[in-house]
Amino acid sequence: MEAKLDSDVIQVTADSVNIHHPDGTQTMLPHLWLRDNCPCDQCRVVETQEKRFILSTVDADIAPTEVSLDSHQLGIIWPDNHRTQFPLSIIDQLLIPEPKHSQPWPQNFIPHSFDWLLFLTDNQTTVAALTQFMQQGVIVLSGAPTQSESLELLAPVLGPIREVLFDRIHNVSVTGHVYNIAHTSLGLPPHNDFASYSFPPSVQALHMLQNEVPGGESIVVDGWAILEQLRLDHPEYFEILCQFPVPFREFDEDNETYAVEPMVRCDTDGNIQSLRFSNQLMQMMNPMQQGIKQFYRAYRELCVRIMHRQSDARATFRLQGGQLLLVAAHRVLHARESFQPVGARHLQDAYFELDNIANKLRQLQALERDAQNVR
Ligand SMILES: [Fe+2]
Ligand SMILES: [Zn+2]
Q1: What is the CATH number of the domain that holds 15?
Q2: Are 85 and 221 part of one and the same domain?
Q3: Ligand 1 being an ion, which residues bring their Cβ within 5 A of it?
Q4: How far, in Å, from the CA of 156 to the mean position of ligand 1?
Q5: Ligand 2 centre from 332 Cα, in Å?
Q6: Which of 32, 56, 103, 371 is packed most tightly, with the most Cβ within 10 A?
């Protein structure tokens, strides 16, 4: 949209200012929106660019007393004589939809591997790796140290560790604290961790310190790809999974974590935000509960697709000692094949938050842009 002098026409209705463009399109700006977003120095905190004006200070039916338009800005005078000058470029920016990070996996996908040291020290590698991570929800780091608690070293890039109960850094081996199927040599079906929290950790790092056993291949499953296909094939099942509350519990002698949530969460546009899936943590439900038969059919169908070994949404690979798997845990489920406990296999887990990773990527991209502008 570009307002051209004399060619755009403004119309003021009871609740909005409408700009009619020569190409027949229209931009509609509600009065309350215009007043709320006034960019003047009185209405913002100048030092921080935060909004200062509070909408409760005007009537619900506030309307401009005067409106003018030139090629660059919209001018408004309000009943109390407050003046708003609204640059049209700001409105143009808002009309562009936010780019979506996530992308589907290509055929025969195996997570990309990045060098641990470069990931931590070389901005270009960090940007490439985090971009990949935001797009596909999974990367591998190779050449990581094999010392215990090396996951602490990732904080400068991934942000602070998201602590949950049990441990700050969780040990997964058959010789340690056994409170979960992961601490046995059994195969682990695809799941995400801490479904028993209202907001489970959104990123999980699985760091292999030692892997000297036959079997135990790592598996990742793109939960969102499976859900999108399920939504196409059985929209009614998808809807049930978005609505039906399911209890999850993880506990030991000292802890009792419990949450009752639907397995699937979407944003208000219907974009999938998270899948919560853990066969091992899911609890028994009231068998007489309304809708439970339908829920179980929907859940079974989801389960069939998640467990399908030849699915395009699944990748299987071996995580060696000194390799680390990073997953966007609200999207990508992790699993492992059973193994023979005839040697050492020691994995450590820690959790992070996707918001902090998105922040890091934005910061590094801004640095790159600044560097390019200087050149
Ligand atoms: Fe897990
Ligand atoms: Zn103002």
Answers
A1: 3.30.2020.30
A2: no
A3: 193
A4: 24
A5: 45
A6: 32
